[in-house]
Design a protein that fits this description.
The chain has 2 domains: 42 residues, no CATH class; 133 residues, no CATH class. α1 packs across α2, α5 packs parallel to α7 and α6 packs antiparallel against α7. Helix content is 69%, strand content 0%. The chain has 176 residues and is mostly helical. It is built from 7 helices and no strands.
Length: 176
């Protein structure tokens, strides 16, 4: 309810939310057209170009990937427009580590959500909510439809692993 009040009263939050919803819908339409229907993409949106370059690069080496920090070199072999990375963690992991590395990463993310949920919220112990802000930061950072920096070449991975360490540490403290 608070969000809707702020959404209505703040033009900046309203604009940002509308932009996010517009970009998300464009990405979902693109995914439907290219992945499900198999149509050739007509890409005018920069974000979608980056997502598409990640998808195409992943298809070249779908099982084991092209290797860490190989996205730009592998992308240039296939497309004429390539950024240094696909600006999405999941696409970068897919294109550089393949489906095997992606599955391992997703298992780690799911395991963390199980730690957060099972040990803290299913026990109905809401007095120790120190883990909640870190869980929120982690979820926000790995949200699949957002653009992001490079996972392997920027401080983003350091931030993610730092948050993971805090979550695991707080969950261990809570279980003791």
């Amino acid at each position: 309810m608070i969000f809707f009040v702020i959404f209505k009263l703040s033009p900046q939050i309203n604009d940002t939310t509308q932009h996010f919803l517009k970009m998300t819908s464009q990405i979902l339409i693109f995914l439907n057209d290219v992945l499900i229907k198999g149509n050739d993409p007509n890409i005018t949106n920069t974000y979608i170009k980056e997502f598409y370059s990640g998808y195409v690069t992943w298809k070249e080496n779908s099982i084991i990937g092209g290797g860490i920090n190989s996205f730009y070199l592998n992308c240039q072999k296939t497309l004429d427009y390539c950024a240094s990375h696909p600006h999405n963690y999941y696409l970068e992991i897919l294109s550089e580590l393949g489906i095997i590395g992606f599955i391992i990463s997703v298992i780690i993310f799911i395991r963390l959500f199980m730690i957060i949920g099972l040990k803290n919220y299913l026990s109905l112990n809401f007095n120790d909510n120190l883990i909640f802000p870190f869980a929120l930061l982690f979820f926000t950072e790995i949200f699949p439809f957002k653009t992001s920096g490079s996972f392997f070449t920027t401080g983003n991975a350091t931030f993610i692993f730092f948050i993971i360490a805090i979550i695991v540490s707080l969950s261990k403290k809570h279980s003791n």
